[in-house]
Amino acid sequence: MSEVVDNPNEQRFELPIDDGDGDIAAAYYRIEDGRFILIHTQMPYRFTGQGIGSQLTRGVFDAIRASGGKVVLRCSFMGDYHTRHPEYSDIVIG
Question: N or C terminus: fewer CB in 10 A for the chain?
Answer without folding.
Answer: C
